[in-house]
Amino acid sequence: MQLHFVDRQTYRLKHEHDYLEQLRLQHGDFYLIPEGGSNHLAVKGCRDWLHNIDEEFDLITCACGTGATLAGFIEALKPQQNALGFAVLKNADFLNTDIANLIDVEDNWSINLDYHFGGYAKTSNGLFEFMHWFKQQFDIELDAVYTAKMFYGLFELIRSGHFKPGTHILAVHTGGLQGNDGFRMKITNNR
After folding, report:
1. 99 close to 70: Cβ distance less than 8 angstroms
2. Mean pLDDT, residues 81-104 taken together
3. First to last CA, the chain
4. Measuring CA to CA, which residue among 83, 88, 32 is closest to residue 57?
5. Burial degree of 120 (CB within 10 A; 0-12, 13-18, 19+)
6. pLDDT tens digits, 8-31
7. Dmax of the chain from CA atoms?
8. pLDDT of 190
9. What is the pLDDT of residue 38?
10. I need a surface site. Which of 8, 19, 93, 125 has the fewest CB within 10 A?
């Protein structure tokens, strides 16, 4: 593999026909993996994964960057089930359109836009305190970029009575723990 750096301005051209043609001329045939891997293959993989889960649930939740994981879960839902994504990006209302473009289902899912903590990879002392508490309570480490925001939001919604009592919630931890290395000092200082 060879990595070629592109600046932000060039990166924004990633969907433009002329830019993609320039890449073909420069590198020959290639397979473009979209940001976050968000394409129909990702949706299929997440859908197939959920089909193999034996847990009964009313609601499935996950953190959302590009929305591909949530889209796959949505496609795997049974009629009485719902999905809730937690956006980790600020001003992420566009995810509703992006996810809708990946799936055919319309009414069994939503995205919560309230627990992004200022945007992608943005954090707060409160988030790190929650991560520490969660680790102490459940012996499960969360990552500061994705899953901590989802679990924080989920616990806040549960505490506020957002869900009907007795709702069975499947919260999916999608990994990302390697990203904590960049936050290690902040995580450690909140213990």
Report:
1. yes
2. 94
3. 40
4. 83
5. middle
6. 899 889 889 999 999 999 989 887
7. 58
8. 57
9. 76
10. 8
What's the CA gap between 86 and 63, in Å, rounded?
A: 5
Q: What pTM value is reported for the model?
A: 0.84
Residues of the chain with CATH 3.40.50.1100: 37-189
- Alpha-carbon Rg for the chain, nearest whole angstrom, is 18
Residues in the chain: 191
CATH of 37-189, one of 3.40.50.720, 3.40.50.1100, 3.40.50.2300, 3.90.226.10: 3.40.50.1100
DSSP for 75-141, written as a single string: HH--TT-EEEEEE-STT-THHHHHHHHH-S--SSEEEE-S--TTSTT---HHHHHHHHHHHHHHS--
Q: Which comes out higher in pLDDT, residue 2 or 41?
A: 41
155 token code pair:
């616990």
CB 122 within 8 A of CB 89: no
